Amino acid sequence: MKQQQDKYDILKTYYGYDTFRDGQEELIDCLLNGQDVCGIMPTGAGKSVCYQVPALLLPHVTLVVSLMKDQVRALNQMGVHAAYLNSSLSWNQYKKALAYAKEGRYKIIYVAPERLLTEDFLDFAASTPISLLAVDEAHCVSQWGQDFRPSYLKIPEFVRTLPIRPVIGAFTATATKEVREDIIR
Q1: Residue 1 pLDDT
Q2: DSSP for 74-115, written as a single string
Q3: More confident residue, 184 or 3
Q4: d(Cα 153, Cα 143) in Å, to the nearest integer?
Q5: What does the pLDDT read at residue 2?
Q6: Inter-residue contact 171 to 183 (CB < 8 Å)
Q7: pLDDT of residue 64
Q8: How far apart are the first and last CA of the chain?
Q9: Cross-strand bridge partners of residue 132
């Protein structure tokens, strides 16, 4: 019988590390215990590990609201099935990725914030159990932030459409007091 992996197995197997960096383990433990988190860590401190490790341990899919596809490529190279849904995909590629996601082929799905409230994505999210919603570059939710993106403001509306509210993690390296308050709100 195969023993269930824990956070240390995931860290070693996929990332090659024996120990977590400062702040990572606390955020991971909170997410695994069903607590929402706001992680503000310097660039290069491993914010993505804070939601990717729980994603691999939680029972259902993890959605990552993000603007980046580089992480998806890196995850797939590590052996983690991941996809991204953004405007760089053709309509056929997008539909195929959603179909694969509905089949459960991906453990982690990166989605551009502009896609959250589209009819196809809402249909997918309503019929797919979601364990974790991670918001990468969460400073984009703040009108006080330099990278304010109005589509990030639609995340709470998206969460309200879900049949079961997932645990939510927000992560950024950029956060003044005002930005932090906006993220938490």
Answers
A1: 37
A2: HHHHHT--EEEESTTS-HHHHHHHHHHHHTT--SEEEE-GGG
A3: 184
A4: 9
A5: 41
A6: no
A7: 96
A8: 44
A9: 62, 167
Q: 23-27: long-range contacts (C-beta < 8 A, 24 or more apart)?
A: 23/50, 24/49, 24/50, 24/53, 27/169
- What CA–CA distance (Å, rounded) separates 172 from 185? 15
Section 129-152 average pLDDT: 82
- 43, exposed or middle or buried, with CB in 10 Å at 0-12, 13-18, 19+? exposed
Region of residue 161 (phi > 0: left; psi between -120 and 50: alpha; otherwise: beta): alpha
Find the largest Cα–Cα distance for the chain: 52
Of the two residues 44 and 126, the one the predictor is more confident about is 126
Q: What is the distance between the alpha carbons of residues 129 and 132, in angstroms, rounded to a whole number?
A: 9
Tell me the mean pLDDT in the region 39-51: 90
Given this model, what pLDDT does residue 77 score? 87
Amino acid letter, residue 98? L
Q: CB count, 10 Å around CB of 35?
A: 12
Query: DSSP code of 16?
Result: -
